[in-house]
Design goal:
Number of helices: 5
Oligomer: single chain
Order of helices and strands: EHEEEEEHHEHEEEEH
Distance between the termini: 7 Å
Mean pLDDT: 96
Radius of gyration: 14 Å
Length: 176
């Protein structure tokens, strides 16, 4: 039996990264739902392609137990996260990340995902791959220079170009 995945898509999201996860999940029969980290389901990719997510992140709060794994799909929203950290959707996103991690659920992401996971304190003692520019921000986990890391329930990649180095392990974990 495969696990059910909640996918967080920031606005704008890196389409290359997001679509790699979704394609792998679709091709392997893994059930997922995409939640826009925004006020509405309408978001865009870094390259301006309009997308409609399944729902908004606010509606995932309180439903974390319905999912076995969480994906953080990074994008151009992250470099300006600090200026928008107080937005309700970002506050909710961090709360959800902390809840998923606190319950030991599978945590998946690329680029600055490990940094977001680390902000919530859930990476303590875990090796994580993170974008080189975000590496200094890792305080709880251990940031490596590897293209990807699989450490316990954490699956992280430095960027969208390195997702393929971990996707087989992610799919195996989700199908276990």
């Amino acid at each position: 039996m495969t696990k059910k995945v909640a996918v967080l898509a920031v606005n704008p999201v890196n389409g290359c990264g997001l679509f790699q996860y979704l394609e792998a999940f679709f091709e392997n029969g893994i059930v997922y739902k995409v939640f826009a980290v925004a006020d509405s389901k309408e978001i865009k990719t870094n390259s301006g392609i309009a997308l409609t997510a399944d729902d908004v992140v606010a509606n995932l709060k309180g439903h974390e137990d319905e999912y076995d794994a969480l994906v953080f799909a990074c994008g151009d929203a992250v470099p300006v996260f600090q200026q928008n950290a107080d937005k309700p959707y970002n506050v909710t996103m961090l709360e959800i990340i902390k809840t998923f991690g606190g319950k030991g659920k599978i945590m998946i992401g690329h680029c600055a995902a490990a940094m977001m996971f680390d902000f919530t304190g859930i990476t303590k003692g875990k090796k994580v791959a993170v974008h080189p520019l975000a590496k200094p921000a890792i305080q709880n986990g251990e940031a490596t220079d590897n293209p990807s890391e699989a450490d316990g329930n954490f699956y992280t990649a430095q960027d969208e170009n390195n997702i393929r180095s971990m996707i087989e392990k992610v799919v195996a974990a989700l199908k276990a």
